[in-house]
Amino acid sequence: MTEKKAKSGKRKLLIILIALVVLAACGAGGYLVWHKMHGSADTAKAEKPAPPPAPVFLALDTFTVNLINPDNDPDRVLYVGFTLRLPDQETLQRVNDYLPEVRSRLLLLLSNQNAASLGNEQGKQELVKQIKATLAPPLVPGQPPQKVTDVLFTAFILR
């Protein structure tokens, strides 16, 4: 009988050990699932990039200029309005402070345009590049150069 009691005691101990192992495995699995669900949400929040800064725009009054053309027709006129996209408020303030200088540079550039070249998309894209290049140099000595991110046309009539 003692042998029977010993076997039943070992069996009970074995069942308890198996139950503890299964319970520990379930607990570890549950923790991993919980951590995966909550941990990935935290890392997704941490990895999400910050939203870009609000755009800075400067709308300029429209320009009306006579254009250069091969037949010397004085009726070739460009009426153009555009908005400058600037990188930051500091550049906006500087351009605003020297707006007469900016407008003068732009008027000189626009009045030297050829009517034939502005009639197509390439000519307009080239004009955007020229506007950026014209406004890039410092407005007065000792200031940093201006960076114009983009030039957006708001009116464009070629007559």
CATH fold label of the largest domain: Tetrahydropterin Synthase, Chain A
Largest sheet: 4 strands, antiparallel
Binned strand content: 15-25%
**Overall number of structural domains:** 2
SSE-based structural type = alpha+beta
CATH architecture of the largest domain: 2-Layer Sandwich
Q: What is the global morphology? A: rod-shaped
Average pLDDT metric: 85
CATH class category label of the largest domain? Alpha Beta
| Element string (H = helix, E = strand) | HEEEHHHE
Describe the structure.
This is Flagellar protein FliL. Keywords: Cell inner membrane, Cell membrane, Cell projection, Chemotaxis, Cilium, Flagellar rotation, Flagellum, Membrane, Transmembrane, Transmembrane helix. By secondary structure, the chain is α+β, with helices and mostly antiparallel strands. The chain folds into 2 domains: 1-48; 56-158, Tetrahydropterin Synthase, Chain A (2-Layer Sandwich). Helices cover 52% and strands 17% of the residues. The termini are far apart.
Feature tags:
4-stranded antiparallel sheet; Tetrahydropterin Synthase, Chain A; alpha+beta
SSE inventory with pairings:
Layout: H1 2-47, E1 56-59, E2 63-66, E3 77-86, H2 89-97, H3 99-111, H4 121-135, E4 150-158
Antiparallel strand pairs: 1-3, 2-3, 3-4
Q: Summarize this, please?
A:
Belongs to the FliL family. The protein is an alpha+beta fold.
